[in-house]
Amino acid sequence: MIRALRRTRFPTVLKNFNANSNARYCWKARLMISEWCDYQSTSGEYHKRYSRESDSKGSKNSHNRNNNFYTFTGASMGVSIFAAVMDMFGIKKIQLDDDPLKDKIKQARVSRKLKQYENAIGILHESLIEASNRKDDPDSAVTYVLDELANTYYEKGDIEEADKNFREVLKRLVQLHGKKDSDPEFIGISLKLADLFAQKGEFDNADIGFRHCITKQMHVMEDHLQKFHVNKGAWTQEINIIEAHGRVYTDPIALFGMCLELYAHFLLQHGGEKRLKEAEEYMDEVLKISSHIYGTSSYHMINVLNNFGAASILKN
Description:
Blueprint: H1 2-6, H2 22-42, H3 44-57, H4 62-68, H5 101-113, H6 117-132, H7 138-156, H8 159-175, H9 184-199, H10 203-226, E1 230-231, E2 235-236, H11 241-245, H12 247-270, H13 276-294, H14 299-315
Antiparallel strand pairs: 1-2
Helix pairs in contact: 2-10, 2-13, 5-6, 5-7, 6-7, 7-8, 8-9, 9-10, 9-12, 10-12, 12-13, 12-14, 13-14
């Protein structure tokens, strides 16, 4: 598998992006991914061991695998690394211990997982009233509940309500919480809005949305990876970097992988034959990222391959 991945060095994965200021970041992103692949070839035994230990012992970094690459079962995508924004990169969870909102939000989550969406929505609307009346940071509480509500509508397939609530969350993130469009919670919601455009048949807007997320996260990736590499004539990085830094290191990389995978699935579904090759090139990069974080024989690697293969078969 490693040899197969290494043969895909420096693909033209972002060839259709604007060739101006983005070109430098596109090339560096491809270079970074290829370097991860090289690192994999010299530390594959570590990744095999890490994957086994995480699976069998629940190691201290096992939460990385559970929180970075989710299996999403929402309205339209069966994509392996699409997560609810509040669960992975979203709004910081409010402290709910000994809080009257605690049970209601738990009940809403359980109802959503059981696909009892109307029940979950009713509970969350009640929770919004309680959140707005909180004495301790009501703005964060309301934003958190709105994010829950938006995700519930999204999984239900209620496009209009999901769109409305996600946009309200984005507005609050900017106006009340000081977030920027390059912050992970903003990117996570933007990916879902892009998917909603696709569901509504607005494919040009969906394409713009996905590309925006990829471009923003590439800029983040450049700054992020420089923190973990030392320039000694060539980039080097410490051994067992994932074990040493956990989610601090893997979260931005996983989010970049999420952007690429979702866009690849979008191109597969709506880009036609002329963009199939482009979708495959994106998936090559997703495989490298999955291998880097989880190892080549991990569940997530299999899941990525299975989902794209199944989507390709269904498309044909």
